[in-house]
Amino acid sequence: MVTSPSDRKSLAVMAFVFSLVIFGTLAVSYLARGYQISFRQGPTLTSTGLLSVTSKPKSASVYINDRLTTATDDTLNLPPGDYHIKITKDGYLPWDKDIQIKKEVVFQTDAQLFRSAPDLKPITYAGAINPTISNDGSKVIFAVASASASQDNGLYLVEITDNPLLINKNIPRQISPNYPGTDWSQASFEFSPNSRQFIATFPGDIYLLSLDTPITSKSLLDITPQLASIKQDWQSQTDQIIKAKIDRLPVSIQALVSTASANDISFSTSEDKILYLATKEADLPQNIITPPPAQSTQQQHRDIKSQNYYVYDLKDDTNFLIGPNLDIHQPQWLPGSTNIIYNQSDKIKVVEYDSTNLKTVFAGKFDQNAIYVSADGNKIITLTSAYHSAPENLYAITIR
Fold this sequence. Notes:
Blueprint: H1 5-32, E1 35-38, E2 44-47, E3 49-53, E4 55-56, E5 61-64, E6 67-71, E7 74-78, E8 81-88, E9 95-101, E10 106-108, E11 111-112, E12 119-122, E13 129-133, E14 139-144, E15 154-159, E16 173-177, E17 188-191, E18 197-201, E19 206-210, H2 227-247, H3 251-254, E20 265-267, E21 273-277, E22 282-283, E23 303-304, E24 308-313, E25 318-324, E26 329-333, E27 339-343, E28 347-352, E29 359-363, E30 371-373, E31 379-384, E32 393-398
């Protein structure tokens, strides 16, 4: 078959375009995997890794091996090897980590920066007695017993929420006044597992109250004879919550985890990391799941010791030591992050799940048993006083 010059020209153009598309696709594929073209000894394709540097807040300075290199958010090609990464921003504590770059693998920093000077704002002004947080972390109840005529004494509730639709969020509201013979400042409180009811225990009476209905004097019915049955029912609900958490863990870890309290097991916001208190000594097997190429290279602790807190990553098959139960109090995930917050020796600290970037975000006098985290993770709410001899109030401490 004889083809005309115009047909041969069209075929040549099509072949050129096809080759260009194939070459472009391959080039993009190799560049995305971290390859670079080097001209030092003629054109050669060099395998590199990728460093994706992100931070909250954004626009922070990025130092690689102590050299200012770029700003977040950016992605860099780096030869495989060990690097020291430091991320800084004015007004925030620095973030740094030793990392290992592997060829054709993306390392993600996702640095959470915390304020170097936290902002304290009072939530209450007339004192807060026996503050107690609900099990879902969404609300705190407390009593007020003030001599000031500007504040009505009684029982109060404050919502811990980041819902922008709630105009009066984080503003306490009275849910019950004091009644004759009922002074709420004399009571201790305990929430039900679903956080919709609470028990108020007075020296002579015990009440079961609901937050779904107004609390009146008619609500104050002594439930002392039914208390054991109610507690048994609540324990059954708690056991179900713990079992649901346990069932999500790999079998190798289930036998190691404390089931004494629902707080001994907690998942990160992304639900791929588990903070747990170990109750046994054991060697955690390798490759419980098949780890991804970008598995963390931070030092692991798979030799489990009893009464230590650990974080197991359900995606990476990594296990990190957070610290002993005796030194770490009330550890909990900081919402929207991979950081854990806890109190230790009059300090509130945060640490990354892989036990790096341990920072003190607040130090001073505060109630060790009253540390609550806002739903957005930007604030800590605690009971403290502005100066010596001042009444203790609930304060919101902005940390990020």
